[in-house]
Amino acid sequence: MKNRIRLGFVFAATGLLLGSGAPAPAQSTEAISLGLRGVYFVENQGQWGDAGVYYGFKSRGLDIAFRESSFTMHLAREVDSTSRAREEAVLDKHRATAPLSGDAAPDAGSSDDPVPTHEYLTLTVTFPGSNDVLPEAAEPQSAKFNYYIGDDESKWASNVPSFGEVVYRNLYDGVDLHISGAPDASGVLKYEFHVQPGADYSQIHINYDGIDSLCIDDAGDLHINTTFGTLTDAAPLVWQEGSSDLSDPIPARFELDDNTTYHITLDGPVDPTRELVIDPDVEWMLYVGGSGNDVAQANAIGPAGNLLTVGETGSVDFEGQNNSYHGGATDAFVASITRSGALSWMTYFGGSDEERGLKLDLDGSGALSICGTTLSSDLPGRRNIIHGLEDGFVAGFDRGGNLRWTTYLGGSGEDVCNDIAINDAGHLLVTGSTESIDFEGRNNSTHDNHWHYGDVFVAELNGAGALQWMTYYGGELGDQGSSISIGRSGDVFVTGSTASLSFEGQLNSNLGFTDTFALRLTGTGDTMWMRYFGGAEDEGGLGMVLDDENECMYLVGGTASQTFDGQINRQHGGDTWSDGFLLKVNTSGDLAWMIFLGGTEGELAHGAAIDGNGQIIVAGETASTNFEGRINEHHGAYSDAFVLSVGPSGDLGWMMYLGGIGSEAALHCIADHFGHLYLCGTTRSLNFEGATNSNHGGRDAFVLRVSTTEGPQLSAATSCPEGGPIRIEWHNATPSAPAALLFARSTGSFTIPNNRPCPGTMLGLGTQQIRNVFTGNSDPNGNRTLNANAGPGACGGYLQLLDLTTCATSNVARIE
C-alpha cells in the first residue's frame, strides 16, 4: 500500500482590504473595510438575469458573482467629481460589466441635478489549469431574501435561501476552494484551499483579471494594484489537518508567476504521523462458478462475519455445490464465503425452467431470504402456484443454505422481484416491476397495462413467506422498482426508473423521457411522497443506500443528461456515452446534490453503501480509461468494474479500477465495520487482479474484498438504549500483543500525555470521562472478541482501540 498524507492545507487570505498604492481619491489612502456586516451568499433563482451566476453576494461597495470555476468582484466608490460626462461613462461601464446583471445601475438623474459620482472596478479571479466545476453552497443561514425588481415577474424571487460559504469542489484534482466571510464581520472575505489526500497543492494558481499588477512585500503580503488603489492579501497561513489550533503552522509564501498570476509555496516539512490515509487495496478476489456463465448479483454479511452471495448460474458443476442443478438455462444460487475469501458452500435454487437470483437480505437470526424471477412452475418449497409465464419469487433459507419455503409473486403478466428488505418484525418488503393487472394480494388497481413492466410494485410477506399485501405504484407509462430499504422509522424507501408524467404522489414534474425516482411509503404501503430526478435525456435508477441516522437516500444509476438537476459537476461523456451518477435526497424528498461519475466513455453505477467513516461507496462498470479520481490504471480491452468513494457533501474521494484483460461489471457493494468493502459481479477475465483462485469458465461470478484502512478496526454490537450485553470486536492489531480499549462520552481530539503509554498519540475521543476500560492481548491473528455487559449510561458513548505495540489507533465506534 502507498501512504497518502492528508495535508488539509488552509490558505487563509485576509483579502479585499483597500489600502494605499496607486494614485486614488483621498478616502482610499487608508485601509478601509468593504462593509461586510453578515455573510449571506444568495442563490440565483432568476433575480439576476445572467444565468452564468449561480450565487451572489451584495454589500455596500461590493458585489460578488460566483460563476463556473471563477468569481467576479464588482467594487464601487463615491468620488469627489461633478462631471456629468464622466458619470455617464462610468454608468455605461457598470451596465456592461456588473456581475449581477439583474441589478439596476445608479440613476444618473437629470443633467441639472447635483449627483454623487461613482467609480466602478471589476475584477475577475480565475484559476489557471483548473477543472470546470460549478459553485455550491454550504453553511445554510436562517436569512431569506425577496426580490421584486420592476414589473418583469421573471426577475422576481421570494424566500430565496442564503448561505455562509461557497465551495468549488475539486477545483483542481483533489483540491476544494472554500469562500466565506470572517465571523467577526470585520470586512474581510477569506478563501481556503482544502487539499485532499494524495493531491498536489502546487496545482493551485490564482489569476486576477482587471488589475494593474501584483507585488509581494518584505512581510510576504501580496499587493494587488488597481485603479482604486491596492488590495492586500495577507501572507498565506498554512496548517495541517489534525492540529487543534494554528500555533504550529507550516511556513509558506506567495510566489509570482507573472504580473497577474501567483501561486503558493511551502517551505516547511509535512508531519507524516498525522492523519495518514491509505490507498484502497484489493485484499482478495474469488472467482465463483463453474464451466457455464455465472453472475453474482448481491452480497450480505452473515452473523459470523461470513459473506453471503446471491446470483444466477448456467453451470452444472458450480464449485462448492451441496445440491444438484435443477434445469433450464439458469438456476439461482446462494453461496457462503469466509472472511478470508474461501468458498464455504453453495446452494442451487430453481425448477425445470429458468431462474435468476437478484437480491438477498438477512433477519435478526441470520436466516436469509432471496428474491428474483422465474419461469418454472415447479419451484421447490412452493407455498402457492405460478401465476403467469414469468413470476417474481421470494425464497427463505436457514443459515446453512437449506431451503425453508418459496412464494411466487405476480399475476398473469410478466413480473420481476428486483430487491428485498427485512424489517424489525421479520417481515419481508419486496419491490419490482409488473405488467399484471391481477397481481395476487393487490389492494389497488394498476396505473397502466399497455406498457412492458407497466408499474412498480411493493409487497409485504411475513417471515414464513405468506403474502400480506401488494400495492401498485406509478403512472400512465412504464415504471420499474429497482431498490428498496427500510428506515429506522419503519418507513419504506424505493427507487427505480419511470417514463410516467403523472406518477402518483409526485412532488415535482418529469424532467426527461425516462427519469430516476425516489418514493417514500409508510410501513403499510401508503404513499408519502415521490420525486423525479434527472435531466432532459434518459436516466435509470439502479441502486440505493439509506443513511439510517437521518433517513437520507443516496441513489445511483446511469444518465445521458448533461444538465442533471442538482448537479455539482459536469458530465464527462458528452452526448454519445452516459455517466454514472450519485445523488442525495433528504428525508422530505428534497434534492441535496448530484454528482456525475465517470470518464469520456460509458459508465453505469449499480450499487451503493456507506462505510464506517460516513463515506458513500459506489460500485459499477466503466469503459473509460480516464475516470475522474482514479488511483490506478484501467485493466481491460473494454469495461472494468470500479469502486469509488464520495463524501457526504458530494466531493469525490478516490476511484479504483477492478478487473483483468476481459470485461467486468460490479453489480453490488456493501461495507463492514472494519474498513472492508465487499463487491460482487461478473467477469470474463482469466487474470483478475488480486485473484486467489482460477477462473472456472467463460464468464464467472466474482466476489472481492477491498480494504480502505490500515491498523486496528473496531466494532461494538449492543442492546442500547437499554443496558445489557455488548459484543466488542477488533481486527488487524499486533498479533499476540497488548491493546487498550478506551471509552469517552464524546468524540474529539485528545493527545495522550507523557506519563501514559504511547505519549503524543492523537485519539479521536473527547476529554469528557475518557478512561481505559480494558487491556488485553490480541489473538495470534491480531483479532479479539469481548462479550460483556454495559450499563445504560454507556449508550451514546464512544470506544477506540489503542495498539500498545505500534501506538496505532482504530476507528471510533459508537455504542448505540
Write a structural description.
This protein is mainly β and 816 residues long. The relative contact order is 0.07. The protein is built from 1 helix and 55 strands. 2% of the residues lie in helices and 46% in strands.
Give me some keywords for this one.
2% helix, mainly beta, twelve-stranded antiparallel β-sheet, disordered N terminus, 816 residues, globular
Overall helicity? under 10%
Shape: globular
* Major sheet summary line: 12 strands, antiparallel
Rg calculated over all Cα atoms: 30 Å
Mean pLDDT: 82
Number of H- or I-type helical stretches: 1
| Extended strand count | 55
Structural class: mainly beta
Strand content: over 45%
Q: Termini separation (Å)?
A: 33 Å
Ranges with pLDDT <50 over ≥5 residues? Answer: 1-37, 81-99, 101-115, 183-187, 243-247, 272-279
Write the layout of secondary structure elements.
Elements: E1 3-5, E2 17-19, E3 41-43, E4 55-59, E5 62-67, E6 70-79, H1 84-97, E7 117-126, E8 136-147, E9 157-172, E10 175-181, E11 189-195, E12 205-209, E13 213-216, E14 222-226, E15 229-233, E16 252-256, E17 261-266, E18 276-278, E19 281-288, E20 294-301, E21 307-313, E22 331-337, E23 343-349, E24 355-362, E25 368-374, E26 391-397, E27 403-409, E28 415-422, E29 428-434, E30 455-461, E31 467-473, E32 479-486, E33 492-498, E34 515-521, E35 527-533, E36 539-547, E37 552-559, E38 579-585, E39 591-597, E40 603-610, E41 616-622, E42 640-646, E43 652-658, E44 664-671, E45 676-683, E46 700-707, E47 713-718, E48 724-731, E49 738-744, E50 747-751, E51 762-765, E52 771-777, E53 784-790, E54 798-803, E55 813-814
Antiparallel strand pairs: 1-18, 2-15, 3-4, 3-9, 4-5, 5-6, 6-7, 7-12, 8-9, 9-10, 10-11, 12-17, 13-14, 14-15, 16-17, 19-46, 20-21, 21-22, 22-23, 24-25, 25-26, 26-27, 28-29, 29-30, 30-31, 32-33, 33-34, 34-35, 36-37, 37-38, 38-39, 40-41, 41-42, 42-43, 44-45, 45-46, 47-48, 48-53, 49-52, 49-54, ...
